[in-house]
Design brief:
single chain; mainly beta
């Protein structure tokens, strides 16, 4: 599994780097976004027996995230992509592997632009602490150039991960954990 993920990420990155030598604004054809996030978890809800929700203290709840997105600009203002990531949640401790579709709208066709995005997908089972899950992120950000050929993004987003502790889907399971928070992201566009 780890080898397959490494090969997929390498292929996406290579394709993105190879195809971008002509695009000075980084908003044409294929792209790769690699981003690092800090998530301040402000709501943890555990439904242990299908009888109701139990909220947990979120005093020390946080997560660190690394995600990569490979995609294509349908036009200079709209892109669609496929992303994969690794999230390390602390208090409660869960390591998640989100696999998602990324939709982005850029407000200006230029080197610097504000954007909005929506990520929707699933959480793949990586440990015995949960079986499967769902994820949703929605946010706004800004694309800018730190140097003449280094494009970066900074964004803020709301994030949701819902995990099923049984073999059922998150929406039908009677044992679930919902993690909600605010993410702060910095990343690179290749």
């Amino acid at each position: 599994m780890r080898t397959a993920i490494t090969l997929i990420l390498t292929a996406l990155l290579t394709q993105a780097l190879y195809s971008q030598d002509y695009d000075r604004n980084k908003n044409e054809r294929f792209f790769n976004i690699t981003k690092f996030s800090y998530i301040n978890v402000n709501d943890v809800v555990f439904d242990g027996f299908g009888t109701g929700d139990e909220n947990f203290s979120t005093d020390n709840s946080r997560a660190n995230s690394l995600q990569t997105i490979g995609g294509y600009f349908l036009n200079p203002n709209f892109s669609v992509g496929l992303g994969i990531g690794l999230d390390g949640y602390h208090y409660p401790n869960y390591n998640t592997l989100p696999l998602f579709i990324d939709l982005r709208g850029y407000f200006v066709d230029g080197k610097n632009s504000a954007f909005a995005f929506l990520d929707v997908g699933t959480v793949v089972k990586v440990s015995d602490s949960y079986r499967k899950g769902r994820m949703l992120e929605v946010g706004v950000g800004y694309k800018f150039f730190a140097a003449s050929n280094i494009a970066m993004i900074a964004s803020i987003n709301g994030t949701f991960k819902g995990l099923s502790l049984t073999d059922e889907n998150y929406t039908t399971s009677d044992r679930t954990v919902a993690l909600r928070g605010i993410g702060f992201t910095i990343g690179f566009i290749f």
